[in-house]
Amino acid sequence: MNTLPDTLILPPETRLGRGASQQLLELCDAFGGRGCLVCGQSQVRSGALDKILDKQSSDVELRVWLHPGSEPTLEQLEDLLEIVRAHNPQWVAAIGGGSVLDIAKAAAGLHHAPMSVLSYHDGQPIPPSPTSFIAVPTTAGTGSEATMVSVLTNSDTGVKKSIRHPSFLARLVLLDPDLLESCPKEVLAASGMDALTQAIESYCSRGATWLSDTFALEGLRLIHGSLDKGYQGDSDAFLDLMNGSYLAGIALSNARLGLVHGLAHPLGARFHTPHGLVCAVCLPPVLAFNREVISEKYARMSEIVGEDLLAYAQSMVGKLGIRNPFAGKALHDPETVIEETLASGSTKANPRPVAQEDVSTLLNTLFQAEA
After folding, report:
1. Which tens digits make up the pLDDT trace of 190-242?
2. Which of 31, 170, 240, 306 is the most exposed place for a label (fewest CB within 10 A)?
3. Are 277 and 130 in a shared domain?
4. What's the structural domain count of the chain?
5. For the domain that residue 314 is a member of, what is the CATH number?
6. What is the distance between the alpha carbons of residues 223 and 239, in angstroms, rounded to a whole number?
7. How many CB atoms lie within 10 A of CB 232?
């Protein structure tokens, strides 16, 4: 195993602490006096946006764009880019969950890009962007603040996939556990299971290195110790949960993921199901599929969580009140889902080779009616 990945991807500056988000506009001054702030609706309702805007300097020319909700689409990105290009900011900051961060980083990264968003989603090379991206996550799960990846859905075709470029990487990350106080329990559960899955998959990925393993295992330890407590309302757990999510994000950014995420994108796009929820229900059957080829790492992870890893994953799904959203439903295009799953870079990084019949078996497991 290599010590480091061929290219090491790390945000250059990260600040952690209660109330850190309220420093956002002051710290953004370092990137220029003109900016865009992308915000989730929940931050308006909780008052977090007002607290940030109260610190606005009169010297800052600021435009605010509210994300309309749901997972990000190409159409939403086009709408945001229209605002960004009209205002021509030096930086784009985002405060919100993974959807908000993903769309904001893509807007910063494509600010000066000459082609359509669809072209880049379809694989055209993305040019560098001078526009800085600043990330303030309000959930502990997606790891988007640590990656140069934006996951977007083409609403016309239903295709959900990633675009990526070094310009998408946050120049500054603010980790504020106070922001988890207003996170709905179901969002905390789903995003936390996403983080748990990312720690596990990046640790087992074909692209894993000593460095990514170190981040992934510490992320797993922190998430294990804090997710259930945070879900039960223990705010003292939020610091560890946010730290664990961030470490898992760094791990996945430098190692890639696995079959859970290969399945999650096509299934989430078709059933309009939150990404973390899809990961939660896909994790146990994929762990069972991979277990025989990751015996040493499986044992290490089981040691960290204090029980058999598969049993732990299954018990966490139950403790967090997560139900399988696919049980008893019909999948109308299984062949296409299988094709998209096999084409995914995440699936290609899975520790066990994945064949068409393997994906078919997993889909049958996910879609069978619950007893």
Report:
1. 999 999 999 999 999 999 999 999 999 999 999 999 999 999 999 999 999 99
2. 306
3. no
4. 2
5. 1.20.1090.10
6. 10
7. 11
Please give the single-letter amino acid code of residue 15.
R
Nearest in space to 351 (alpha carbons), one of 298, 280, 311: 298
Q: How far apart are CA 194 and CA 277, in angstroms?
A: 8
Tell me which residue of 138, 128, 137 sits closest to 108, measured CA to CA.
128
pLDDT above 70 coverage of the chain, percent = 99
Q: What is the mean pLDDT of residues 28-36?
A: 94
Same structural domain for residues 105 and 226? Answer: no
Q: In whole angstroms, give the CA distance from residue 252 to residue 199.
A: 7
> Which neighbouring-strand residues pair with 36?
63, 92
Compute the residue count for the chain: 371
Boundary residue ending a domain (178, 204, 232): 178
| DSSP category for residue 370 | P
Q: What is the DSSP letter of 330?
A: -
Q: Average pLDDT, whole number, for the chain?
A: 94
Residues 65-81 have pLDDT tens digits of 999 888 899 999 999 99
| Cα separation values, 34 from 25, 80, 112, 172, Å | 11, 16, 16, 16
- Same domain, yes or no: 100 and 204: no
If asked whether residues 44 and 161 sit together in one domain, one would say yes
DSSP reduced 3-state for 96 = strand
Domain residue limits at 255: 184-367
Question: What would the pLDDT profile of 258-268 be if each residue is shown by its tens digit?
Answer: 999 999 999 99
Kindly give the interhelix angle for 98-109 and 74-87, rounded to the nearest 10 degrees.
50
Alpha carbon distance 354, 96 (integer Å): 34
Q: Of the candidates 119, 150, 178, which is a domain's last residue?
A: 178
